[in-house]
Amino acid sequence: MAAEGGRPTVLALMGPTASGKTALAVELVQRAPVEIISVDSGMVYRGMDIGTAKPDAATLALAPHHLIDVREPSDPYSAADFRSDALACIAAIQARGHQPLLVGGSMLYFKVLRDGLTELPPADAALRAELEAEAAAQGWPALHARLAQVDAATAARLQVSDSQRIQRALEVYQLTGEPLSAWHARTRSQGLPFRLRQFALWPQDRDALHARIAQRLAQMWAQGLVEEVQALLARAPASADLPAWRSVGYRQVLAHLQGAYDRVELEERALFATRQLAKRQLTWLRGFDDIAVRDPFRLHLDELVRWILQNRD
Fold first, then answer.
1. If one looks up domain 4-117+194-309 in CATH, what number appears?
2. What is the pTM for the complete model shown?
3. Domain ranges of the chain
4. What's residue 189's pLDDT?
5. CA 71, 74, 76, 82: dihedral to nearest 10 degrees?
């Protein structure tokens, strides 16, 4: 689809977990010549199906998704990998005369696609070991508080439990003397050859969203999420250093299977973590500009489909 300036338009459908993105995307495929590109950091991994709410075989037959099942959980997939793969998918879809539709809740992936990559200093193993030792002694909340003193903007968007990103932000500051937020501010777009038209499903009723999340998690337990993780562990050992095993849901099940807590506490922790994920996704959305927004809990699916189709050029 052409846009102003002759550049084709690529659609992006964002929103928090359990807001109805997949159902809307599948319906769009039935109504228009669009192809779905998954923007989900968990769905890229083979075998991680239940905990990522990956579309089932029948749904994928109806509406194929690009960029799912592209890696083993033991093979890390990064935002940079996503940008490269997504750009290749977009070009191939356009060559077929179809319109790409990016769908998902991995907001960092959307940001990296749109804004390009920040050239950060490489990791420093010795400094990372030092920070990990300090965290072991003081706790990650203490390091988060230290980060807030030198990089308030980055600290504000990170949870005190987000050890990986707290560590990286402190590492960048200690290596360069500049906060990570300053490095990101210097990022320049790497010249997208298309116009990105962004849509977001944004529930206004937090209780309703929490109810949807609880319902989805209940379905995951019933479908065998714990057993899925056991099967994955039988294939290859898990490591907390691997991005796949830091995913919400899988991280909690892994800890449960390692004896950290019982099944009741597992379900409580997974519910809390998923609610926090939704909160972070909405925080990301508030930082994006030029997004058209609708409340999916107040509109019928047909109304949402018409909303996007009428604004996709």
1. 3.40.50.300
2. 0.81
3. 4-117+194-309, 125-185
4. 47
5. 10
| Amino acid in the structure at residue 109 | Y
- CATH 1.10.20.140 for domain 125-185: yes
Taking the chain (313 residues) in runs of 10, the rounded mean pLDDT of each run is 72 98 98 98 97 97 98 91 96 98 96 83 86 94 95 93 93 88 68 92 97 98 98 90 90 96 98 96 93 97 97 91
Token output for 154: 């980055």
